[in-house]
């Protein structure tokens, strides 16, 4: 029986932060051959018996849809921190998106907008609950920001679909951001 939470964290690290440590050959869209990932994981004793079905089950069981498998390849949807920019398909966002953040960052965000920081994209949530969960990682009482995504899109800000709960943007200028009261 695999510990799927640990497996998810291991694969996240491999695909989102350090593919070179696993000797993975990642294309410009972030895809890696699933067999190559499995071979890399099998080098560790805890994963020596892993098969593709274990990874597929981990993805199916996870509430945080972080990965996708297609045509024998796997990729992380979002969260990449390494220098190579992962190409994402531009898509029209919903009218409003949300971002949860620590209160200490609010003044800077309102002045400079949302920036990707160490990540490749700004992460936005489709619902308030997800934004609050994310914000609580950095502050027990986070600020929830409301993004006027419809207006931003109409004025040329690019958005990318991450998964059913996460949207991505290169940046979001402060004029499209309001604090939820």
Produce a short descriptive summary.
With 181 residues, the protein is of the alpha+beta class. It has helices spanning 4-17, 34-41, 52-61, 106-112, 128-135, 149-154; strands at 32-33, 67-70, 73-76, 97-101, 122-125, 143-147, 159-161, 166-169, 177-179.
Notes on the protein architecture:
Helix content is 29%, strand content 19%. It contains six helices and nine strands. The strands form three sheets. A three-stranded antiparallel sheet has the order 1-3-2. A three-stranded antiparallel sheet has the order 4-6-9. Helix 1 (4-17) packs across helix 3 (52-61). The model has no long low-confidence stretch (mean pLDDT 89).
Compile the SSE list and pairings.
Elements: H1 4-17, E1 32-33, H2 34-41, H3 52-61, E2 67-70, E3 73-76, E4 97-101, H4 106-112, E5 122-125, H5 128-135, E6 143-147, H6 149-154, E7 159-161, E8 166-169, E9 177-179
Helix pairs in contact: 1-3
């Amino acid at each position: 029986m695999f510990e799927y939470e640990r497996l998810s964290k291991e694969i996240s690290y491999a695909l989102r932060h350090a593919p070179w440590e696993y000797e993975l050959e990642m294309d410009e869209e972030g895809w890696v051959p699933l067999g190559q990932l499995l071979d890399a994981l099998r080098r560790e004793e805890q994963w020596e018996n892993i098969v593709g079905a274990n990874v597929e089950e981990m993805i199916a069981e996870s509430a945080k849809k972080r990965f996708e498998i297609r045509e024998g390849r796997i990729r992380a949807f979002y969260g990449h921190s390494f220098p190579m920019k992962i190409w994402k398909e531009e898509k029209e966002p919903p009218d409003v998106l949300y971002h949860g953040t620590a209160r200490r960052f609010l003044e800077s965000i309102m002045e400079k907008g949302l920036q990707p920081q160490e990540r490749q994209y700004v992460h936005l949530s489709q619902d308030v609950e997800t934004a609050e969960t994310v914000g609580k990682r950095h502050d027990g009482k986070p600020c929830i920001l409301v993004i006027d995504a419809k207006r931003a899109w109409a004025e040329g800000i690019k958005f990318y679909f991450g998964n059913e709960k996460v949207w991505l943007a290169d940046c979001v200028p402060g004029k499209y951001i309001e604090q939820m009261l």
